[in-house]
Fold this sequence. Notes:
There is one protein chain. The N and C termini lie far apart (68 Å). The protein is globular, with a radius of gyration of 27 Å. The strands form four sheets. The protein has an 18-stranded parallel beta sheet, with helices on both faces. A three-stranded antiparallel beta sheet has the order 1-3-2. The chain has 18 helices and 25 strands. By secondary structure, it is of the alpha/beta class. α3 runs parallel beside α5 (79-91).
Amino acid sequence: MVTTRLSDLGARLDNNNVVDMRFLDEESSWRLFCKAVFGGGSCPVELEKIGRNIVESCRGLPLSIVVMGRLLERLERTKECWKSIKRSLKSGVRLENYDHCLKILKLSYNHMPIHLKPCFLYMGVFEEDNVIRVSTVVKLWVSEGFLNPISGKSLETVAREYLKELVDRNLIILVHELGYSTGSMKYCKIHDSLRDLCLREAENERFYHVVGRDSPRGIHSQRRIVIPRGTSKKIIRNAMKSSPDARSYISDHERVRLLPNLRLLRTLKAYEYGGFGGHKHSVEEMFELVIPRGTSEDKVRNAMKSTPHARSYISDHERVRGLSNLKNGFGGFEGHQHSIGEMFELVNLRLLVVKSDPFPKLPSSISLLWSLQTLIVSCYGSDITAPVEIWKMSQLRHVYFGFGEMTALRLPDPPSDSVVVMENLQTLKGVRNFKCDEETVGRIPNIKKLGLVYDEDEGIGPRDVCNMECLRELESFSCDCGTRVDLLQKLTFPHSLRSLIIMCYGSVDDVLEKVSALPLLQKLKLQHGWFTTGEWATVEGRFASLKSLSLSSCGNLEYWMMESSHFPCLEHLHLSWIQLKEIPAEVGEIPTLKSVSLVCCKESLVKSAKRMVEEQEELQGEVSFKVEVRLLNKKEELESLANPNFQVTAQVFIELNPNPFPICLCRKPATT
């Protein structure tokens, strides 16, 4: 028998007899703990509650559970003794046995290839227990320069390969591995013990310093400073004064103001763009370093004067403010004036992620940020107009504007006097009335993610969207056509497409016919579409790769005729706010099915789903999928249907209905 943390090694040795070990669940963890402490005997009743809390802190890691169990085995079995151990864990005190545990885990780090080590250590900057967006990790690794370029591969591809290596080594945990999406990694976590290992090794190697932790060699020459939540103002101020050569300040939630002499600033992440919350700030304030809440301006100013060489300032959820004493700003904000010229002198900036107050346009001087790779701005208000100079920013890789459907970026036509091809651009999302003509398509040949919004303005016609199929690298496409059914019918899709989201208030019959033929499509989400006949009949040989199907607020859909072979790969089905009377029993016969989600659907649909589960239980004994039903209001009859494979919950309001009404209301298709 061979044990290894390397998943691929186990598969190479004997692919037919590999046992994939997972983190233990609550009960399995408790049984292992009792075996380590009591030799398989039962835990005294008076110690069980405390013991379970201690086990919970081990997060399902068998090694941690055993080490903790062996420690408690040698101590007094009293509530006072066990409570002291619990307090030690809570306060961060590391015991001798826990250090031994880290030494064992460190073996994985010692045998790690050199190119993976900085990427692994960087995971320690994220807060404990955070669910982390993989795309966030990828963008930060790229902006920090951790990746070795590989011929024929983008840096993002290299980053995901590095992350996959860490996952295969069981150092990173995937959360919803497929993201119910396109088969790619979407969210990840790092176990507490492994995060502690990152922090310890980062300190030893002076990769970054965590404020509040002892540093025998001092922090004067540290390049990255991590400021944990809850750090006192005094400690922060002393740390910043002691680190004049820092390249990065990494902190969650809080802010400090940035002085205009940070010419080497490389990364500015001011909020978590995959989530909610955070303060807004005006665009002229986008250059603000982030430190803990409540720090006074004087303290911030003193600290920042001591860090003129910082290159990266990273923070979640909060706003960033630049202190330039200037004129010509976008408009006042809390009495500050800012110079656009000085703002865009940060020529080394690679990543800029901010949440902003409304502003009308980006200045043409944005093109001075010649190193900028990622530009993400969340803004609630009117649309933002980009200057024509944005087409000359050849280093751009990811551009994302907007706040839902409320705000979008308006791009001008490419300049006729320039033939710059934006070969690096992979993401362009939140763009309104985008002209996808031959000229524009030629400027973005490698685009992989595209998100567009269309309305009645600017004279956009069907000819402006008929070149979509020329984007040969496009993998993810979302389009809100509103009532522009004429555009929807002319949309053509490249065969490379893996994820498709369509929002419209028109007939979707023809579109579904085209979409069903896409050979690689794995995720399809349809909102508001109208089924002209009230029926949807699927056929054999279509939706060959579809894994996730979502129908939300689709009007006039009452009957769905299908066979299990029509969706050979389907894993997740989501139906919400629709008028469908019954779910086809054949859905339960799809061998790959894992989950069915029903939100605010008809009572008859819920009951038919229950029958579908019961039929499969009778036929197979065990059901490979689960059904989750969420009701708008409590209904005892439906709630009584619940069992382990059929969950029913009722809330006053469960999810944001795409319509402003508590029922499914869809506009009839507009005439063309």
